[in-house]
Every structure is written in structure tokens, then in C-alpha cells.
Write a structure and sequence with these properties.
Blueprint: E1 2-7, H1 27-39, E2 47-53, E3 69-70, E4 75-80, H2 97-109, E5 117-121, H3 123-136, E6 140-143, H4 148-157, H5 164-183, E7 186-189, H6 192-198, E8 210-212, H7 220-223, H8 229-235, E9 246-250, H9 259-267, H10 270-275, E10 277-281, H11 293-309, E11 315-316, H12 325-335, E12 339-342, H13 351-359, E13 363-366, H14 371-378, E14 381-384, H15 389-400, H16 403-416, H17 422-437, E15 448-452, H18 454-458, H19 462-473, E16 478-483, H20 488-498, E17 505-508, E18 513-517, E19 524-526, H21 528-535, H22 540-546, E20 553-555, E21 566-570, H23 576-586, E22 592-596, E23 600-604, H24 610-621, E24 628-632, H25 638-643, E25 646-649, E26 667-668, H26 673-693
Parallel strand pairs: 1-2, 1-5, 2-4, 5-6, 6-7, 7-8, 9-10, 9-12, 10-11, 12-13, 13-14, 15-16, 15-24, 16-17, 24-25, 25-26
Antiparallel strand pairs: 3-4, 17-18, 18-19, 20-21, 21-23, 22-23
Helix pairs in contact: 1-17, 2-3, 3-5, 4-5, 9-11, 9-15, 13-16, 19-26
Length: about 700
């Protein structure tokens, strides 16, 4: 397979990248190069070409017009000249689209065969891939890295004024992203926030064509890092008490990274200033006036804040560093019981969070973007609203005051971060590409259907999952789906991590969303008829308002709130469901209330539930009632289990499931998790055979 990666932004080269030399030369280039390096190791990949724009850069001794550049045995970097010779920021690249498209089209014409796939990185590349794909019939994958609507929302929500030129640039970028999203064969997101919140703001949002694949990272240098004399020398001129714990931030000084908020959090809290130092590594610079305007403006703001709060002796902000200094700085902070802080207004993923985790530093990170996924998986930090500087300071002090907690979080991250590796990433990435390149084959119409809950029903036993996969492959006419409280992308991610077969259908968000697998075996399409049906009697905002001050309820995070689902943590009071229903009825609001594990409470449209969604699917697929099997383990499965004759309760169930009303027909498996599911299906099959024989 020949893959062509399109990346126009920043100063791209095969090695020794000049990170931070421009505002657009940042983490996306590292992501791209590490993806390509890992991808090239796969035998199925015959050739990889990186295609970018050639330019004259008087700010660097590197020749950015040289082409081709041999990056590796399978990898070549091609720089294509355009009408203008000089370097352009991402806001100005649109001017070169026509000439770049012409040059790219000519380059493709000279190839002996077209590439199997284009992969576009950032908005401009997405626009070009959409145009070339339409001309030549080459499918493309789109990775946004960051999104224009997200940036616009961050700036406006935080009261930052936009001049007319910036507004025009963002609107152009959003238009390019809209076209890329509409025409891409697949969109790859780095986090659930990106997939489910940021992309949802786009007109052509289609959840079924977005897959979340967390970036990998080369972390060995950080896992085994030690503080070096060179790294200590970078900080020595700044800090009067260098052995105090440090709040460490490493980011380019662009507005979205919100570094000024971190300085304010530190400067405004006397207790934190007495307890710790602040270290900000914000790229490389000689003279501020030589930097691009956004970088220069943000650095000037930092320096003014340092003056205003008189932070000299307590804050370090070195002008230079070498790549090998970064692991050493993490190690330096770890040795002093420090904390890594990412206060970004939005962080699409956060490679520095992985680096800090590998180095053994607890995290304080923005609750907007990829840090949600990292901290959920690693259990090594806290999420904060980046607009609340007081929260940043209080969480830092809480960690410094609790050494046992600091140690636990540090150890959690150090161990769990191993899951974010490139071999795992490219395995999933290549599987998706290969499926997209195969001829489409319509799946066989199932004669029976198995629908399972995921957490603690299918998952929970690796041996059980392996047995389930082998068993399912031997069932050619058995359809397979899942019904879960998780969101669509969360369900896909947990299934992929567990190694479970791609389900033919996903009932997600406690029955409020249904998706079916497409013939390509990769993407899914939403059941819009189901969405319209449950929307008829659903007044989401009125329900939310009715529960704002309800005792014993705490809203779950933004990622758990859906168009047709409001999710809360409850205080464990068994009577809360009855009281909640009474309040909704008193306000003439119809809704379903699902309580599970004595802690989670979901409020849905009255016509939505796992059970009602399963019945809708059964009718759509024309499955007989006695050929439908469902399996679950907890209270949010009760509606599904009680309404289907062939219901399976796995041995590790909770919430007194078997004692609940309407459950006398259910089969109680002796085996737990996926093995219990297999046992239950075979039980009902044997019973059906016995009934026929009699």
C-alpha cells in the first residue's frame, strides 16, 4: 500500500525539526513523523510519501526547497513549489491552493500508479485532498489536529476580541474543514472530546465516519530521564530557591495554550508562591520582535505579568533549549515533587501530558480536549476549567500537601502511559485503511441476533474475550451488536482495546442512539428514524432546568451529556429515582430515568431505553423474538433484559438484577463476563431444539 500524507503547515523536514521556529511548527509535525516512522515498519506498507510546500525561509539555514528528501527506506519527503516563494503562515496558505493543487496533480500524474490512500493533515491539506480526491477518485483520510470552530469558540467564550482579518481567516479555515469532513472516507480524531464535541459543531458532522485513535509517542527517553547539568543550568539564573517543587509547563506561546492564566494562578496565590516555583518552557527565541505577532504578543504578556506580580526568583522562562533538555526538565521537576500543568483553552490531545506521565509527574490539565482521555485511562491527575485560575492553584497546593496522593498519581501515569504507543496506533490505523481499500461486500442477513452490554458483560476477562471471538466467528448467521451506557465513540474505543469483533450495530448512550456498520466494515451510519422517534416528546432544556437544584444529583462531565441523554452522579440514595420522577411529572415532563451501580443516573426521552432500542432494531432487521438474545450485568440493562424472552444475566451481575421484577424468565449463567454470554446463548438454543423435538 502506498500512502501519501499531505501537510502544508509549518517547517516540515524528515529529521531535526526546528520546533517552535514558527507558530505552525509544532506537535502536529512530530505526530506526523512518528506516525510515518511506525507505519513504514509494517510489511503491508510499500511506500510512504510526505508532500508539502516548498518555500524560501530567510529565518533558517535549512533549505526548505530541497526535494526530494529521503527520510527512510520506504519514506520520501516531496516539496512542491507554488506561485509565491516565501514562507506563509496557515492563515495565508489559502492563496497558494490553486498553484499547489496544480503541482500536486502533475506530481500524481507522473507516478506509475496512484496511491491507495491520501491522508490530509490540517484544514488546508483537507481542502486540497477533497479537490484531488474528487478529480482522481482517490479516497482520503482527514486528521484535523485542531479545529477552527474550536479555536473560534475558545476565543469568543473567553472574551478575546477578534479583528476582521482573524475572523476571515477562521471562517476560511472552517469552510475548508467542512469540505474535508463532508468528503473524507474517514476522519481520525485524537480524543473523544474532538470526535463528539468539537466535530459536532460542523454542518457535515457524521459520528459514524469518525474514529478515535489516540496518538502514540516515543516515551523511552522520558521514562528513563534524569536531570542533567545542562537542564539545571537553563533554570539556575532564574530561581533563588531551585529545590522547591515546581509547576512545569511546556508549550508554544500561542493564545490557545493559555500560559498567561498559569502565571496569574501562580502570581495571585501567596501560599503557592511560598511553596513552589513556576517553570515555563515556551519555545526557542532570540529576540521577541523577530517572532511572529501571536508568539511575540503572548510572550510580552507573560513578561508583563511577571513584572506585575514581581515573580523574579520564583519563575523560570528560558529562551533556549535543546531537544534533549526536555526529558531532563521533566526529571528535574519530578525529583522536586513537582507537577506538570497544561492550562490550554483546548488541547486536541496533549503529547506533553504523555511525556510528563512517562517521566512520573502528576498532571493538572484542561478539561477541554484530549486530557480527559489521558487522565481517565491513566488515573494520574486532575482536570480543571482553564478559565478558573484559583482552581489551578488550589489543585496544585492539594497535591503538594498530600505526598501519598502525589506518589500514587505519579506511579499510575508512569505505568498506564504504556498504552499510548505507536505500534498499537498503526495496527488500528492500517486495519482501517485496508478495510477502506477493499471492495464493498454486503453482509449476510442474520437469522438471529445477540445484543450485549459491554462493561463487565463482554469485558472483564481477556480469556473470555478470546473465547467469544472464536465462538462468534463460527456463527455465520448470528448478528452481533452491543447496547451500552457509553457514547458511540467510547463504545468503539473500549471494544477495540479489548480486541472484540466489530459489532454490526451499536446501541449507545443507554439506548438513545443507534448506529449500523457500513458495508466497508469501518464506518457506521446513524438510525435517523430512531432519533426522530425519541425526539417527539423530549424537551431536553426543560428537563435539565428542572434538575439544576435537585438534591443528591451532580452532573457528569460535558462528554457524558448527549442530545438525548442527561447524565448525573447520584448520592446513592435508593429513593432518588422516585423523587426525581415526581418532580418531572409535576412539571409535565415525560422522561425515562435509569439508575445503575447505585451511583450513575441517566435521564432519557420517555421513548428511549436499551430495551426499546433493541426492539426497534429487531423489527428493522426482521428477527424473530425467539431468535433475539440479550445479555447484561447491571441495572441499566434491566429494561432490555426484562423485555426479551431470551435474556442472559452473567454470573458477575450487580444491582440485584435477578431479583428485580419481571426477571423470572432470565437465564442466570454460571460463567462470568463473555463466557457467560456464550453459555446463555447455547442454553436458549438447546431449549429451542428441545421444544422443536417435542
Amino acid at each position: 500500500m502506498h500512502i501519501v500524507h499531505l501537510a502544508l503547515q509549518g517547517c516540515l523536514r524528515g529529521r531535526h525539526v526546528e520546533y517552535g521556529i514558527t507558530a505552525d511548527t509544532g506537535g502536529h509535525i512530530r505526530y506526523l513523523l512518528e506516525l510515518v516512522e511506525a507505519s513504514a515498519k509494517a510489511p503491508s506498507i510499500t511506500r510512504i510519501t510526505l508532500v508539502t510546500r516548498a518555500f524560501d525561509g530567510d529565518f533558517s539555514p535549512v533549505d526548505y526547497r530541497h526535494s526530494p528528501e529521503i527520510v527512510g527506506p520506504k519514506v520520501t519527503l516531496v516539496r512542491l513549489p507554488t506561485a509565491r516563494a516565501g514562507y506563509l503562515s496557515k492563515e495565508a496558505l489559502w492563496q497558494e491552493h490553486p498553484s499547489f493543487i496544480a503541482a500536486f496533480d502533475a506530481w500524481l500524474s507522473a507516478l506509475p500508479a496512484p496511491p491507495a490512500m491520501l491522508h490530509a493533515h490540517y484544514a488546508d491539506a483537507g481542502e486540497i485532498a477533497a479537490e484531488i480526491g474528487a478529480r482522481r477518485g482517490i479516497p482520503f483520510v482527514f486528521t484535523a489536529h485542531s479545529l477552527g470552530r474550536g479555536k473560534l469558540k475558545c476565543l469568543t467564550d473567553n472574551g478575546l476580541a477578534l479583528d476582521a482579518e482573524t475572523q476571515r481567516a477562521l471562517q476560511r479555515r472552517i469552510a475548508f474543514e467542512e469540505r474535508a469532513i463532508r468528503h473524507a472516507a474517514l476522519v481520525i480524531a485524537s480524543s473523544r472530546d474532538e470526535a463528539e464535541v468539537q466535530y459536532a459543531d460542523y454542518l457535515h458532522f457524521d459520528a459514524g465516519r469518525i474514529r478515535v485513535i489516540a496518538p502514540g509517542s516515543h516515551l523511552d527517553d522520558f521514562t528513563h530521564a534524569t536531570a542533567t547539568p545542562a537542564a539545571q543550568a537553563l533554570l539556575a539564573p532564574f530561581l533563588s530557591e531551585p529545590d522547591k517543587p515546581a509547576l512545569l509547563a511546556i508549550a508554544r506561546p500561542v493564545t490557545r495554550k493559555n500560559l498567561a492564566a498559569l502565571v496569574r494562578a501562580f502570581g495571585e496565590n501567596a501560599a503557592l508562591r511560598a511553596r513552589a516555583n513556576l517553570v515555563i518552557v515556551a519555545g526557542v527565541r532570540e529576540h521577541i520582535d523577530d517572532l511572529e505577532p501571536e508568539l511575540a504578543d503572548n510572550l510580552r504578556e507573560l513578561l508583563e505579568l511577571i513584572d506585575d506580580y514581581d515573580l523574579y526568583g520564583q519563575i523560570a522562562y528560558p529562551r533556549h533549549h535543546a531537544p534533549e533538555d526536555i526529558p531532563a526538565l521533566y526529571a528535574w521537576a519530578r525529583a522536586r515533587g513537582g507537577v506538570f500543568v497544561n492550562p490550554a483553552l483546548n488541547e486536541p490531545f496533549g503529547l506533553t501530558l504523555l511525556e510528563a506521565s512517562a517521566a512520573g509527574l502528576p498532571l493538572i490539565a484542561t478539561d477541554s480536549g484530549g486530557p480527559n482521555d489521558i487522565i481517565e485511562q491513566c488515573g494520574n491527575g486532575v482536570l480543571i476549567d482553564p478559565r478558573h485560575t484559583g482552581t489551578i492553584a488550589s489543585e496544585a497546593l492539594a497535591l503538594f500537601d498530600d505526598p501519598a496522593r502525589w506518589q500514587r498519581l505519579a506511579a499510575n501515569g508512569h505505568a498506564a502511559v504504556k498504552a499510548f504507543d505507536w505500534p498499537r496506533h498503526v495496527q488500528r490505523y492500517h486495519d482501517l485503511l485496508q478495510r477502506l481499500c477493499r471492495p464493498r461486500v454486503a453482509p449476510a442477513t442474520p437469522r438471529s441476533l445477540l445484543v450485549c452490554d459491554i462493561d463487565n458483560t463482554l469485558t472483564g476477562s481477556p480469556d473470555g474475550i478470546r473465547a467469544f471471538n472464536a465462538w462468534y466467528r463460527a456463527q455465520p448467521l448470528l448478528g452481533f451488536g452491543v447496547a451500552t451506557g457509553r457514547s458511540f465513540h467510547s463504545a468503539l474505543s473500549i471494544l477495540e482495546q479489548a480486541g472484540i469483533h466489530y459489532p454490526q450495530l451499536i446501541i449507545s448512550s443507554v439506548g438513545s442512539e443507534i448506529h449500523y456498520l457500513d458495508a466497508n466494515g469501518v464506518t457506521y451510519h446513524r438510525d435517523d428514524g430512531w432519533s426522530a422517534w425519541i425526539d417527539r416528546r423530549w424537551h431536553r432544556e426543560a428537563v435539565r432546568e428542572a434538575l439544576v437544584d435537585f438534591p443528591g444529583l451532580t452532573p457528569q462531565g460535558a462528554l457524558e451529556q448527549r442530545r438525548h441523554k442527561l447524565s448525573y452522579f447520584s448520592d446513592g440514595d435508593a429513593g432518588i429515582v422516585g423523587r426525581l420522577r415526581e418532580r418531572l411529572q409535576a412539571r409535565d415532563l415525560a422522561a425515562s430515568v435509569i439508575h445503575s451501580h447505585a451511583r450513575y443516573l441517566d435521564v432519557l426521552p420517555v421513548d428511549a431505553s436499551k430495551g426499546q432500542a433493541v426492539e426497534h432494531v429487531r423489527r428493522r432487521l426482521k428477527i424473530a423474538r425467539d431468535a433475539l438474545y440479550v445479555a447484561g450485568d447491571s441495572g441499566n440493562d434491566l429494561d432490555m433484559l426484562s423485555s426479551v424472552p431470551c435474556s442472559i444475566v452473567v454470573a458477575n451481575h450487580s444491582d440485584g438484577l435477578l431479583e428485580a421484577p419481571g426477571m423470572t424468565h432470565a437465564y442466570a449463567a454460571d460463567a462470568a463476563h463473555a463466557l457467560g454470554v456464550i453459555e446463555g446463548v447455547e442454553h436458549f438454543r438447546r431449549r429451542a431444539g428441545a421444544d422443536l423435538a417435542s
